[in-house]
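We read letters as residues; the fold follows as tokens. A sample entry reads:
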Amino acid sequence: MKLTLAIKKIVKGAALGVSIFSAGALAVEPEKDELKFGFIKLTDMAPLAIAAEKGFFEDEGLFVELEAQANWKVLLDRVITGELDGAHMLAGQPLGATIGFGTQSHIVTAFSMDLNGNGITVSNDVWKEMKKNIPHENGKPVHPIKADALKPVIESYKDKGEAFKMGMVFPVSTHNYELRYWLAAGGIHPGFYAPHKGDTSGTLLADALLSVTPPPQMPATMEAGTIDGYCVGEPWNQQAVFKGIGVPVITDYEIWKNNPEKVFGVSKAWADKYPNTHIAVVKAMIRAAKWLDESNNANRPEAVKILSQSNYVGADYDVIANSMTGTFEYEKGDVRDVPDFNVFFRHNATYPYYSDAIWYLTQMRRWGQISDHKPDSWYMDIAKKVYRPDIYAQAAKELISEGKLSASEFPNFSSESGFKPAQKDFIDNVTYDGTKPNDYLKSFKIGLKGNDKA
């Protein structure tokens, strides 16, 4: 492999007519140029695949191997041990690891990989009962579908002495928090974690029992009857539709419009050791994200073809295209336009906002993963330890100076605070202001707040 990479460097340098690391080719030489990054087989790993396939990594003098991982825990562990240089991560993973929920390790992110991209799917039997509680127009369910429609179904399970079970992909995943948010907004208690009692099941006082299932296994697990529904990223909601085994009832875009989803994570030790490499990686991924969104998603069909390869997502082209090209199919035949279901670059999607980090921390506190009350200043301190907009800004400024992107395509770095304006587009109409995390927690009927303990 090293010989192949060396040949690539020589060829690339000759083509440029300059040394591969001269000012005309690269801003600064990366300290490490042979890298291995991990990912889970989901469509939102696309910036990694595109950066590799379209030559953006090589433009930065990087030779990257992408390797699918078995599950999120294995992926995180391999980043911590150094077997992986970095990885496509759940936005909550760097935060959870850094504060010591589960595995303890300081992980940082300087790049947000996407907005939106998840859905909640229920089995056909559950959908049949839910539909009775949902208003219809022109023969189709009115969206967004709230968890209020699921509550009578769960109560009927209780009456029969049966547990209602749902899958999510990891305890600190967006999917866990989105599913919990949706359920709680409908008056369904999703359960508490109580690590101070040694209880990390997340099912204390739960009306619906949530458990971990790896994304590609979601449809089969539901088909087997082990779970009654799940929250997962694409293409595994659309797969349920294609297989005829379930119905996606809501997307995360409808739960929280333009919510942050995955990030690119590295260990703090790796970031400190290879700062120039880190900037080069972020530059390549920014370019990949722009490519994915540019010209009103014109490149998405090509992206879907790439992602359908077995070494990436490995699902059928039509299944991936169902969401990646701006539509989403709910009940079979109910195809609706959702142009922002997957967002990779627009709306400043790639920028690592402190307010995004703090939202995840509030949900960890709300559901007991953070056992004790923390002052607002603590949330800010953790956000700054994990999210690194300074590294992002350096990468962006290099791209601007190289003429590859324009300043107008990024936040104004001279005035950017790292906080989005207060956000109101939640399914329960609660407003989120990242500068006031404890006030935000107080606004919920279900969930821990103040000095509460599970």
User: Anything to note?
Assistant: Residues 275-297 form the longest helix (23 residues). The CA atoms of residues 88 and 148 lie 34 Å apart.
